[in-house]
Amino acid sequence: MVFSSTLLGQTRPNHHSASEGQFHLDQRPVAMRILYIAAHPDDENTRLIAHWSQFDGYDVAYLSLTQGEGGQNILGPELGEALGVIRREELYAARRLDGATQYFGGAADFGYSKTVDETLEKWNENEVLSRIEAVVKEFRPDVIVTRFPPDARAGHGHHTASAVLAIRAFERLQSMGRRGGYAPKALYWNTSSWWAQDLEGAVSRDSLAVLQIGGFIPELGQSSLEIGTLARGMHKSQGFAGMTDRGARTEYLQLLKGEPVDWTPPVFAACSAPMPFPGIYAEWTTESPYLIDSMRTTVTVINESNEPVRAQFDARFSDGHDSRLTMLDTLVGAMSSFSFKTWLHADGKMGGMVLYLSTQDGIWRETIPLSPEYVTSDRVKGELRRPVQVTPKYSISYDVPCLVVRDGSPTVLKYALHRYGTLTAEKVQLELLGGGISTQSDVVVDFPAGQSVVHLSAELSQKRGRGQDISRGSISAYLKGDEVPLMTAIPIRYDHIPQQEVWVDGTLPIVTAPIALPEGLHVGYIEGAGDDAPDALKQLGVDVKRLNTATLTADDLKGLTSVVLGVRAFNVNQGLASAQPLIEEWVMKGGHLIIQYNTATRDQVTDHMGPLPFKLGRDRVTVEETKPKFLHSTHPMMTYPNPLSQEDFDGWVQERGLYFASEWDAAFTPLIEWADPGEKSTQGAWITAPAGQGQVTYCGLSLFREWRAGVPGAYRILANLVAFQTPAHAYE
């Protein structure tokens, strides 16, 4: 849990100062309120939002129906819930720049969807629709703007659904408006030439608003386009940073519902609204970022101005008596400060804190919401702030995302017990419990004073009678006497968003399967956008050598039987451009190059991904239950050392694969064929070809998701990939 202001949305978290050098457009009279709606983080048009908010002075909010947890991540290995937290924080970072408010719709990002019907079914459309209506009623916009059209042109079921639900919400609110309730005036679609080449000719003049954006804001020293570009660059996990946009830009708004509105920018007279105090700094700091039971905190107001300021605090404290401190009132003199101590408790009784600033004679000027923060410093990065999280005392972590137990042979599991809060010397008893494998009980963990983590190991094996079974299980860690298993805390450490931990289910998936592998395998691994291939290979007993493309030499490749490229390696690993000739020469001499999925985008470091040409398309199979057709069931990659069957494609999560090859050299052999229901089949998911004395394989299967989910077939497919025998490496 992170302290936040609302279940549905949040504006600018952790407002510290009433005078941070920002242009306080929110002090102008608001001419219009606009709610922008789309499906994911990064879908929003930050340039338009920044122009409306920072230049025109409109009150703008973005409603992202999901947190983007089903997407991809070019920054690191975080997927699922942890990625959702990263992308949520990236939205907050973008809003701090473009000045808008951020809301969420609570819908699940279950990965790419090809149809709006599938999306609405998995989202529970009535629930998401109700949340949209709740946000609209809270924010009360004059205008709602969708990013996508309500049809297949949106290109993604989530995108289409966001527009469809926005229209339904608008229509329902219009019905309420006719009965005297609030209702927005109009619903627009932020269209572009992406959807219609001749927009101004294709849409009636009465239905199309043409806006010129990009005005310069002297108080900020930037144009709205510059601010919007910087805001978009906060979506770093999706690779959306780029060149700064300057000058002017044309935006189009097509009226979908309601009456046309006047988009003429307002001209403001002298501002009569109360302006914020200059030079006021306020913060609420804690002694730790982790709130376990309770801890002391400090509230500080610093007045660097030349006039006294009246500070009034409204907060609820939990001190054992459930008392309430209401309107603590003090006068902070010019060039002076005021602070007080209070306790923060993890029992749910502590709400937020609000600071009201007034003149000495009581004229209100500004309201500042405060959230508790932990503040520290770094000798390179300077001051660092992070939110306070309510956390358990202990967490568990494992050195692998999934444990593989092969043929009943013992497997060593390395794990660690972490603790938070006060780090006094203590002993803790731990139990590892799971089905189908041996377990450990009464593990004594000795924490010396000041130490936050203890590393441990356990030798585990299958129980009798399970040697040839293929099964999936799990293992959990418990404190002695507890009935609730420990959770895992995933640290989020990126410079553009606040540090924090994501607390997830601490259950470790276990794969028990007879996965065969020959002796003598030596596999190289080249880093991509983050996957678990090295861990998966090591658990199969394979020697893995990590290769640095920036310093790669022919000697580094000697003795390797295959090289695996991480997912999206050609999109993120700049060193591949110069290393590729060496790799191709190694392939021609007998190596096997295994390329996991890449995206066909402009950021590819080279168009030449292997010794034989092939092109990537956008084909994917998203229905996890889709059955593959084996095109060459006797091909060695399908039979050795593990004969593959339909069972190896059971239990997959989220998708089958993505960014399949669309064209390839005649030397390639496609191994499988499949299609989502109602679509044309594709054969580019898994293709392989001899190249000289070696082999090159492109595998667009989503193995990186399946390894983490504990899918046995994904490990058997990986074993067959790295065990493929080229003429130069025929081993038994």
Structure write-up:
- This protein is of the alpha/beta class and 732 residues long.
- The chain folds into 4 domains: 32-258, 3-Layer(aba) Sandwich (Rossmann fold); 280-390, Immunoglobulin-like; 394-512, Sandwich (Immunoglobulin-like), CATH 2.60.40; 518-723, Class I glutamine amidotransferase (GATase) domain (Rossmann fold, 3-Layer(aba) Sandwich), CATH 3.40.50.
- Strands 1-4-3-2-5-6-10-7 form an 8-stranded mixed beta sheet, sandwiched between helices.
- Strand 8 (216-217) and strand 9 (222-223) form a beta hairpin.
- Helix 2 packs antiparallel against helix 7 and helix 4 (125-139) crosses helix 5 (157-178).
- The longest helix has 22 residues, at 157-178.
- It is globular.
- The protein starts with 8 loop residues before the first strand and ends in a 9-residue tail after the last helix.
- Mean pLDDT is 89; it is low at 4-8, 11-16, 18-26 and 318-324.
Flag low-confidence runs: 4-8, 11-16, 18-26, 318-324
CATH class of the largest domain: Alpha Beta
Query: Kindly, what is the distance between the CA atoms of the first and last residues, rounded to a whole number of angstroms?
Result: 53 Å
The order of strands across the largest sheet is 1-4-3-2-5-6-10-7
- Form type: globular
Which architecture name of the largest domain does CATH use? 3-Layer(aba) Sandwich
Total tally of structural domains: 4
